[in-house]
Specification:
The protein is an alpha+beta fold and 266 residues long. 35% of the residues lie in helices and 13% in strands. The protein is built from ten helices and eight strands. It has a four-stranded antiparallel sheet, with helices on both faces. It has a two-stranded antiparallel ribbon with strand order 4-5. β4 and β5 form a beta hairpin. α1 runs antiparallel to α5. The longest helix has 29 residues. The chain is globular and about 55 Å long.
Length: 266
């Protein structure tokens, strides 16, 4: 249990971040729950402190998605990458929450990466109970791009996240002030569901129902999710290693799409 006389808040944060990285997190950031009120983007029912009144901080963990695998979308290859990342994130979040509770003596729980029974259930209400994108934005992990995805310096939008809610007294990280989205229009141009519309707002208007219905179609064809908007985004240091060369051949993409999906939809 915690011994406040031997552990400063700075040391506590270092211990938690080191544990998160030991568990496999590539990105670790923290914000105060006050951000939901100071920079409101959602209704109060979504605020973590209105769900768990003891909440003080939200720790966000991020791991990368590999661009050459996303290039195959829609395919079972990308589907497995997506599924694996979700499992890893929830396990990391569980283990970090347990560490904070049992070893450090503070309250902690995690909000699971995806909280829905199936994609079909999101058509009627295509909103998550908790936004890891928004938490990561508040925590300084990245900024929100035109595609409504989090854009990070390291991986662009090719990143998956999970959040831990805690009362541990650790300092919040500064938000990123510079907009990381370059507003190139690639997500708007290539979206197969045509769910984005440029109305002049800071990010595109998004028809969440159209996006979700497209995912239902892909699920029924046994190769989902979509991922086109994160695939075509040119932002991210992760793409530099592929500069000047193809990430995947056209034949390679066709090959990966030829297995694990409905034969009539390949």
């Amino acid at each position: 249990m915690k011994d406040e006389s031997k552990c400063t808040d700075e040391e506590l944060k270092r211990q938690i971040y080191e544990k998160a990285r030991d568990l496999g997190a590539e990105l670790v950031n923290c914000c105060s729950v006050e951000k939901w009120q100071k920079i409101p983007q959602q209704k109060p029912e979504f605020y973590p402190q209105n769900i768990w009144p003891w909440s003080e901080k939200v720790i966000v963990l991020g791991i990368p998605l590999f661009a050459p695998m996303i290039d195959t979308t829609p395919s079972i290859v990308y589907q497995e990458l997506y599924t694996t990342s979700n499992k890893l994130l929830d396990e990391m979040a569980y283990r970090l929450s347990s560490y904070i509770v049992t070893q450090l003596g503070y309250k902690a729980i995690f909000f699971p990466r995806d909280c829905y029974y199936g994609i079909d259930d999101l058509v009627a209400n295509p909103s998550a109970a908790f936004s890891h994108v928004l938490a990561a934005y508040y925590a300084g992990m990245g900024t929100i791009g035109d595609s409504h995805n989090l854009i990070t310096p390291e991986f662009g939008p090719r990143v998956r996240m999970v959040s831990i809610i805690t009362d541990a007294p650790i300092a919040a990280d500064p938000m990123i002030e510079k907009d990381l989205c370059i507003h190139c229009g690639q997500c708007l141009k290539h979206c197969p569901s045509n769910c984005f519309r440029d109305s002049g707002d800071p990010v595109y208007d998004m028809d969440k129902v159209a996006c979700t219905k497209h995912h239902v179609t892909l699920k029924n064809e046994h190769h989902w999710p979509c991922g086109i908007c994160i695939d075509v985004c040119p932002v991210g240091k992760d793409l530099k290693m592929y500069a000047g060369q193809e990430r995947i051949t056209a034949d390679g993409t066709a090959h990966c799409r030829s297995f694990g999906s409905s034969p009539s939809k390949r």
